[in-house]
Model the fold of this input.
Amino acid sequence: MQVQEFIFNLNEEDFVKGLLKISEFWLNMFQPMDSPYEFQGFGNNLSPQEFYIQNNYNKIIQKHKIWLEKEKNRFS
Done:
């Protein structure tokens, strides 16, 4: 599974680079409707100052891991 490999191999010490890589990944995947990712400022009111912080990066990684588990259960 492409998403799983990407998320579990994402070892960014710089959370800004990590968030940019996640954004790029979903753009390249044409962001399916059920994807766990929300781009900053699209469908949310997060400012760049609120989006590009370590805490948000951690939440996004966790949200992806939860989404992956649900997807695995859905297809098993």
